[in-house]
């Protein structure tokens, strides 16, 4: 491992909160800041959490759950007030917990004051704060968008939205109600810093998770995208036109330098970098770059798939591809970068359903095995709410009216447009129950009481039907629960620095059922060994020859045994995971 100066987040256990679904304190069916406050003791006492990542809490029309910000300096009223937020900061800091805000600055809401001003005139104060371009016209004189780029949320919608007042189109990568800011305008960068960064640093936040930070740059020429789908007018937007441009690095350096000048303390900047190669990833996070401290590599969530694929095209990847995705981020440590560990978040399916057995007979074993995987990888560990109890995807029999996410609703619309018949039901329900974003956004299961103890009123989105047998209250009472296993693993992780910052060495990459890796110190001496069975059947793990002459002690296993030996051919039960430590004799 290349040396890196120790920073406070290197030993942190982080927890991501999706505010609307975490805990409702006032009975309106929507989670809020006071609900978060009520569960701080649980997070710290049970999971030893010392870093909170708050998904967006800014004022917003909530068309994309707060990723459409209408005012960076106001709390969304259903979540609370600035006074509530200040109380949260004070409470967390008094317990040694840092707080990170979700910084949404690639775009704003179309209801933000900046955009409302920008759309009025080509000559006003905010005229070029967003990306505006003139229409094109076809041979018949019909107005067309400036280019053929397709949005990330739909196969059938342009990235451009027309505004009659300006007789121009504005650019929106995601949805029409999320116009993209023009980061090349220095006035925009200054306003974002003052409103979305400095305002919150002055209130005591400890850092930011920078949403889709690589997309801040767009090719100002906006050329047509290459044709991927023959016969279609709109084509997927390729990264070369809007992703990880050199200017993004310059802008991040400016932000970092200004924070250091004005605030002094160690503020953490966490990027989100989908579709980013290892080399470019390292450019963003290497200490010498003075940009990001670390970044979330969301490519792991679409392993084996393309970012341009629709939900109907997504498929589960073979295990070796998952190993490759994890190796990509773990190997950053070898070159001085600091990795993150995240196998579940708000944008993707629940990990036990995405990578594990789902809500079947092996759910608990699968959830424990995935917990063992996450807690033995190097870097800052991120846990998503509900992951610690093994929450699953929604059932496939949910009707259309149960879904709330803009992208999920776009999927339903796309399928109906293409297929347009009763046959749609099976297709969209299977795709949404497997890949949809609402899978991770249902209310946390606090108990087996009505509405899962999340609220005493019907929540904003339906509670997953399995809350009666998957909930925090029940698992707190069981010594062998998924939650109890997480608690044990986190304590082991804190005890063994090798788990947090050891070098990752993959074993038997091509094995389709077993995932094994060693964690080492300087050199090639294996100190810890992790073996995981990613299948419903018994799997045989063959210990590599160099390791057979060493003595291994089982530290922890998902089936509870402490005496399982390891040899040249070790049988692993379905979804079993084990962590071994080398005994030096």
From TrEMBL:
Domain Glycosyl hydrolase family 13 catalytic: 16-441
The keyword Hydrolase appears for this protein: yes
One Gene Ontology biological process: sucrose catabolic process
Domain of life: Eukaryota
Pfam families, per database record: Alpha-amylase (PF00128)
Family listed: Belongs to the glycosyl hydrolase 13 family.
Single Gene Ontology MF annotation: sucrose alpha-glucosidase activity
CDD domains, per the entry: AmyAc_SI_OligoGlu_DGase
UniProt lineage: Eukaryota, Fungi, Dikarya, Ascomycota, Pezizomycotina
Protein name as annotated: Glycoside hydrolase family 13 protein
Keywords annotated in UniProt: Glycosidase, Hydrolase, Maltose metabolism
């Amino acid at each position: 491992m290349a040396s890196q100066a120790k920073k406070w987040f290197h030993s942190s256990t982080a927890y991501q909160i999706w505010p609307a679904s975490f805990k409702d304190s006032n009975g309106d069916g929507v989670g809020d800041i006071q609900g978060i406050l009520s569960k701080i003791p649980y997070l710290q006492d049970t999971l030893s959490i010392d870093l909170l990542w708050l998904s967006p809490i800014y004022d917003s029309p909530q068309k994309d759950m707060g990723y459409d910000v209408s005012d960076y300096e106001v709390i969304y009223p259903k979540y609370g007030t600035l006074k509530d937020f200040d109380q949260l900061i004070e409470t967390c800091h008094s317990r040694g917990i840092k707080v990170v805000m979700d910084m949404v600055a690639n775009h704003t809401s179309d209801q933000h004051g900046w955009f409302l001003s920008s759309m009025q005139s080509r000559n006003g104060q905010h005229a070029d704060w967003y990306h505006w371009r003139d229409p094109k016209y076809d041979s018949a004189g019909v107005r067309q968008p400036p280019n053929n780029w397709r949005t990330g949320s739909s196969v059938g919608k342009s990235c451009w939205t027309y505004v009659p007042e300006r007789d121009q189109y504005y650019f929106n990568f995601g949805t029409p109600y999320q116009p993209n800011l023009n980061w090349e305008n220095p006035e925009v960068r200054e306003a974002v810093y003052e409103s979305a960064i400095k305002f919150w640093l002055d209130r005591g936040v400890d850092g930011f998770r920078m949403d889709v930070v690589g997309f801040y740059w767009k090719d100002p020429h906006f050329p047509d995208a290459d044709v991927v789908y023959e016969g279609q007018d709109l084509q997927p937007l390729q990264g070369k036109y809007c992703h990880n441009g050199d200017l993004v690095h310059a802008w991040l350096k400016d932000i970092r330098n200004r924070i250091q000048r004005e605030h002094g303390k160690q503020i953490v900047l966490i990027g989100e970098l989908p579709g980013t190669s290892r080399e470019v990833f390292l450019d963003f996070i290497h200490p010498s770059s003075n940009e990001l401290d670390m970044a979330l590599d969301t490519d792991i969530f679409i392993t084996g798939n393309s970012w341009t694929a629709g939900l109907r095209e997504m498929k589960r990847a073979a295990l070796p591809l998952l190993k490759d995705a994890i190796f990509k981020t773990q190997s950053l440590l070898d070159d001085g970068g600091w990795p993150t560990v995240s196998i579940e978040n708000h944008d993707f399916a629940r990990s036990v359903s995405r990578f594990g057995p789902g809500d079947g007979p092996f759910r608990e074993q699968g959830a424990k095995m995935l917990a063992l995987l996450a807690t033995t990888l190097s870097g800052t560990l991120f846990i998503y709410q509900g992951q610690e109890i093994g929450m699953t995807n929604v059932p496939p029999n949910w009707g259309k009216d149960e879904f709330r996410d803009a992208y999920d609703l776009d999927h339903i619309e796309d399928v109906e447009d293409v297929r347009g018949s009763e046959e749609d039901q099976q297709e969209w329900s299977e795709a949404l129950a497997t890949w949809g974003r609402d899978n991770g956004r249902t209310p946390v299961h606090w108990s087996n009481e009505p509405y899962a103890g999340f609220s005493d009123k019907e929540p904003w989105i339906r509670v997953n039907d399995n809350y009666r047998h998957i909930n925090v209250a029940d698992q707190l009472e069981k010594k062998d629960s998924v939650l109890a296993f997480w608690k044990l693993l986190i304590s082991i992780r804190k005890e063994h620095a090798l788990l947090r910052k050891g070098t990752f060495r993959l074993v038997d990459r091509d094995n389709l059922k077993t995932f094994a890796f060693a964690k080492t110190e300087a050199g090639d001496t294996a100190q810890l060994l992790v073996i995981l069975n990613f299948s419903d059947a018994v799997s045989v793990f063959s210990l590599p020859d160099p390791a057979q002459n060493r003595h291994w002690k089982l530290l922890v296993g998902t089936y509870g045994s402490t005496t399982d030996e390891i040899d040249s051919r070790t049988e692993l039960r379905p979804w079993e995971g084990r962590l071994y430590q080398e005994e030096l004799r």
